[in-house]
Each structure stands twice: as structure tokens, then as C-alpha cells.
Amino acid sequence: MDSGHASVALQQMAEAMTGTGLIYFTLRDATLGAQVKQVRVMVEHATTNEWIRHPPMDAEMRGVILSALKALDPFLVTLRNRVIHDVWEPAPTDDHPDGLYGHRATRWGKEGVETTVGTLHLIGSTFFQVACVLSEAGRALALLQDHDRAHAAGLRDNPVREAERYHQELVARMTAIQTGRQEGWRWIRR
After folding, report:
1. What is the C-alpha separation between 161 and 145, in angstroms, rounded?
2. d(CA 32, CA 134)
3. Which residues neighbour 171 within 8 Å (Cβ) at sequence distance 6 or greater?
4. What total of structural domains would you count in the chain?
5. In terms of Cα–Cα distance, which of 63, 182, 47 is closest to 123?
6. Is 30 exposed, middle or buried (0-12, 13-18, 19+ CB in 10 A)?
7. Beta strands in the chain (DSSP E)
8. Rounded CA gap, 114 and 121, in Å?
9. Looking at the predicted structure, is the pLDDT value of residue 101 above 80?
10. 117 pLDDT higher than 80
């Protein structure tokens, strides 16, 4: 469900960035990984060619968006695919009573992972953080297209500030996961 929220937020942000709802027709049947790759190319190349018309792109929001997309692909999309497509069985231990073991058939044999129910919840909540970043970034892009950054800073409901706050939380979470310091994180490949 949380990866679905991220996909919807990705498409809404892409609409705000490109200025057209037609973006949904190019993304609708694509896998999440393919959607991320397509939108990343759009974000990277927005405002780089004077012959292609689209709304202006705020440089700080571009950085926030690209960082969120980097968290999605390949890291979160790969984990999501494992969660969705692996065969899971309970594997509790004394240290991890909510332990799970997942495996999937691969061309070269079986690939397994030891994890916990808590880790699966962390994956989901990280997808939700990405959805929050992209949702607020889309709102921020729309606001910045109509007003300048100084005007936006004075607003009580400021999506620029919210996108940056969610982004800081996402970066902190991703850093903690990747350095092994995230409390409750367990993902051991076997």
C-alpha cells in the first residue's frame, strides 16, 4: 500500500513538474521502477533545453526530488519486489520472535533473506516518507511556478518547507538503514 502511495505521489509530482496531466498515460502501466526511471530523466533534463516548453524548475526542489527518487530506485524498489514476490515463512528466533525467511527462485538457484515483520513495516514507512517528499515537492513546484521563493516562505502552509523537512527525515532514515544503525532493521541475504 505504501509503495502505491509513492507511485501516486510520483505521478502527481511529475504532473506538476511538466505542467500536463498527460503524464499519467505514459506512466500508468509501467512498473514502479520504470516509472521512477522515466520521471528521473524528466527531472534531470527539465530546463536544460530552451526548445522544450514546460514550467520552470526550482533548483532546490530538483535536488530534493532526485534524492527521493534515488531512495526509491534501486534500493526501495528492490526491497518492495522481494517483499511482494518472495515466498515467506515464519522463522522466529529468541532474538527476533517476529522473524521471517523469504526466498525466491532465481536462474542460478535459490536466494533467501532473513528479516522481521518490523523490518517490513520499516520498508513500508520509508515508502510513505518518499510519498510525503514527492507529494510536498509537487505542491512546492506548483506554488513556486505561481510565486517566488520569498513569497512562498511567508506562507503558513508552506510545501517547500514541508518537502525539505520530509526529505531530511528520509535522508536520515536511509543513512541509518544503509549504515546498519536503524533500530529494528534486519535484512540478511542468504
Report:
1. 16
2. 14
3. 67
4. 1
5. 182
6. middle
7. 87-90, 99-106, 109-116, 187-189
8. 15
9. yes
10. yes
Beta bridge mates, 35:
none
Q: What is the pTM of this model?
A: 0.90
Residue 160 above 90 pLDDT?
no
Average pLDDT score over residue span 104-114: 83
SS3 at position 110 = strand
**Cell numbers standing for residue 10:** 510520483
Give the containing element (helix H, strand E) for 18. helix 2-18
In angstroms, the CA 173 to CA 91 distance is 26
- Residue with the bigger pLDDT between 150 and 31: it is 31
The set of residues, in sequence order, having a beta carbon less than 8 Å from that of 112 and lying 6+ positions away, is 101, 102, 103, 189, 190
Q: Range of 47's domain?
A: 2-189
What is each CA distance from 128 to 39, 108, 131, 142, in whole angstroms? 18, 33, 5, 21
Residue with the three cell numbers 522466529: 92
In angstroms, the first-to-last Cα distance of the chain is 27
Cell, residue 97: 520472535
Cell numbers for 158, please give them.
508552506
The secondary structure of 65-107 as a DSSP string is HHHHHHIIIIIIHHHHHHHHHSEEEE---SS-TTEEEEEEEET
